[in-house]
């Protein structure tokens, strides 16, 4: 286990070396590493990338929580106020972070639109994840900002959603997300790494990806998965020799 981190990563920022490693691994690899540590509920099931070709998403979580709207509080006039937490989230989410929006699973109104996505992209935010949906999906894709949702939700936000909390623990797609937890998103979906485990999980997940490259080469040449995948002490020793030899082509 790594040494305890005294501050969440949202406050300290994600180490560039850790970010670089997580950009090379898949959400499934990360979930497997966390499973070894007893974490079973880390994948945001039902949340999918807005665009099939969007970049990998990595960054510490900055959170926004919605509750159902109420007619005396939620109007377009109130939505335009400077203290509206939805709009504040767009201006206060730190560069490099991932805005995680807890919409309570509601698809009755939009968690975000294209103007907000464009602003986040300009400010250097890494991406957005919601267990609700977005409006202006095509325009959001055009910003290049990696975004994940359940499905499109075109109605205006105040119709069904009221923002109540920023940078506090939330539940998104059934997964607990604490400020600073590290979010990794790819074509398979989104996984949440407890912030104090980010460094060791990144190391182990990258090691797993690199071993899978070795295993895939052998499988392509007809080798059985038995004794190869998952790794055994013998196949790991074989892998280490292969790495030491400069990763040569695997002979059939």
From TrEMBL:
Annotated protein name in UniProt: Putative 4-hydroxy-4-methyl-2-oxoglutarate aldolase
Family in the record: Belongs to the class II aldolase/RraA-like family.
EC class: lyase
Record-linked PANTHER family: 4-HYDROXY-4-METHYL-2-OXOGLUTARATE ALDOLASE 3-RELATED, BLR3842 PROTEIN
InterPro entries per record: RraA/RraA-like, RraA/RraA-like_sf
Described purpose of this protein according to its UniProt entry: Catalyzes the aldol cleavage of 4-hydroxy-4-methyl-2-oxoglutarate (HMG) into 2 molecules of pyruvate. Also contains a secondary oxaloacetate (OAA) decarboxylase activity due to the common pyruvate enolate transition state formed following C-C bond cleavage in the retro-aldol and decarboxylation reactions.
Catalysed reaction equations from the record: 4-hydroxy-4-methyl-2-oxoglutarate = 2 pyruvate; oxaloacetate + H(+) = pyruvate + CO2
Complex formation: Homotrimer.
E.C. number: 4.1.1.112, 4.1.3.17
Naturally occurring in which organism (per UniProt): Arthrobacter hankyongi
Cofactor: a divalent metal cation
């Amino acid at each position: 286990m790594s040494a305890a981190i005294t501050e969440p990563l949202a406050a300290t920022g994600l180490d560039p070396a850790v970010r670089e490693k997580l950009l090379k691994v898949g959400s499934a690899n990360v979930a497997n590493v966390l499973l070894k540590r007893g974490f079973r509920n880390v994948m945001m099931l039902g949340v999918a990338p807005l665009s099939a070709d969007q970049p990998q998403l990595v960054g510490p979580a900055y959170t926004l929580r919605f509750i159902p709207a109420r007619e005396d509080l939620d109007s377009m006039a109130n939505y335009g106020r400077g203290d509206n937490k939805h709009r504040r989230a767009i201006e206060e989410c730190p560069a490099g972070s991932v805005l995680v929006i807890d919409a309570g699973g509601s698809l009755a109104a939009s968690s975000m639109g294209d103007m907000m996505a464009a602003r986040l992209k300009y400010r250097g935010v890494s991406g957005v994840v919601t267990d609700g949906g977005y409006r202006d999906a095509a325009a959001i894709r055009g910003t290049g900002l990696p975004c994940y949702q359940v499905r499109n939700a075109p109605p205006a936000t105040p119709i069904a959603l009221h923002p109540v909390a920023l940078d506090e623990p939330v539940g998104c797609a059934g997964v607990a997300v604490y400020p600073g937890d590290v979010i990794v998103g790819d074509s398979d979906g989104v996984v949440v790494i407890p912030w104090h485990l980010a460094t060791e999980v990144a190391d182990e997940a990258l090691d797993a990806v690199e071993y899978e490259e070795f295993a895939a080469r052998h499988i392509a040449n007809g080798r059985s998965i038995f004794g190869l995948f998952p790794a055994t002490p013998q196949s790991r020793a074989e892998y280490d020799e292969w790495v030491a030899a400069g990763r040569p082509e695997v002979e059939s």
